[in-house]
Amino acid sequence: MALYEKKWWQALFKKKEEKQEDVIHDVQAILEFLKDIPEESRSLIPLFKQLEDLEKERQVASGHLTKINLETQSGVLEKILARYEALQNDADINGIRVKRIALDFLKKAKKAGLKDLVAEKEQSSRWRLGW
Question: Is the pTM of this model over 0.85?
């Protein structure tokens, strides 16, 4: 049997099917994330105000009170970091979705014959998606 007839060789050079983007699903996920942002900010604002007050108190506190204050700040910061981490992860994931939607749009526009539009968008730094 010739090398090119072997299954493992054919699998090595098999064309991979391009995954179709589900733009509607991505847009719905982004909208859901954007609706949740006000709730996240409402939950973070009191924590930051509490941290601000604790820091003001720490600046005028002495010795033993400073240690207690810093332990309290540690607890508040732990909550802030957990919520911010989740918010940042969600924002990053949705940023990737937006980039995929934009790339899919450019591919569809190119296929539809809108070469001038695609060329114009590819010249724009925003459409290079380096953010």
Answer: no
